[in-house]
Amino acid sequence: MCGRYRRTSSEEELCRIYKIPIPPQLDLPISYNVAPTQKILTIRYNPDTGQRTLDALRWGLIPYWAKDPKIAYKTVNARAETVDTAPSYRRAFEKRRCLIPADGFYEWRTIGGMKIPFSIGMKDDRPFVFAGLWDGWKDPGTAEWVRTCTIITGDPNELVAQIHTRMPVILPEEHHARWLGEVEDGDLKELLKPLPADQMRMWPISPRVNSPKNDDPDILTPIEA
Q: Over 90: is that where the pLDDT of 111 sits?
């Protein structure tokens, strides 16, 4: 699964990289320790304007048909294998796909009875995007719309397989337009494969990352595993 990541690139930088008009108001702070249920940045495509947008959505997808928003605790990740058939995701997979910018993500490996966290990212430290889905849910109590999202996970590459059986799906730039629906999409599931391991790096880090309250650069300090 992918239950924690970091987004340390600014909104302005992400808009420049991913060709998005800078939103008039967003101001979602960077974070070294993004956790489920928090608001996170997502990239969506608006077919009416023909433009990409950078939006803050809550992490943990609430399907439009849900009766209880607590389902979001179970929908932080969607499995690539069943994303087109699972009731919670199939409509979003058809119509509401998004990209979720990140600068790294975290996974844990049990070594000598202890769970050691690892930071994983690109070799050149550039930002990247997870394949994601989003949906809108109308709160029956307030009649307000709540927009939420999920990160798709799939098989790990050779690097991540050393510590975990799954990893988030990272989409290279050449697949962004197809995933967002800007161009003819074809078979979208064929895009949900592991990014080549030779583009990535991984190192053990402080267990301080275990608590979302710890949100600072020192989390990334390498330790002996």
A: no
Catalytic pick from 11, 15, 98, 107? 107
> Catalytic: 2?
yes
Mean of pLDDT values over 135-156: 96
Report all structural domains of the chain as residue ranges with CATH numbers, in order of start. Answer: 5-209 (3.90.1680.10)
Choose the catalytic residue: 2, 15, 98, 149: 2
Mean pLDDT, rounded, for 96-107: 98
Q: 3-state SS of the chain?
A: CCCCEEECCCHHHHHHHCCCCCCCCCCCCCEEEECCCCEEEEEEEECCCCEEEEEEEEECCCCCCCCCHHHHHHCCEEECCCCCCCCCCHHHHHHCEEEEEECEEEEEEEECCEEEEEEEEECCCCCEEEEEEEEEEECCCCCCEEEEEEEEEECCCCCHHHCCCCEECECCHHHHHHHHCCCCCCCHHHHCCCCCHHHEEEEEECHHHHCCCCCCHHHHCECCC
Nearest to 134 by CA among 16, 47, 55: 55
Query: Is 107 tagged catalytic?
Result: yes
CA angle 27, 28, 32 (to 5 degrees): 140
Q: What pTM was computed for the model?
A: 0.96
Match 């608590």 to its residue by tokens: 211
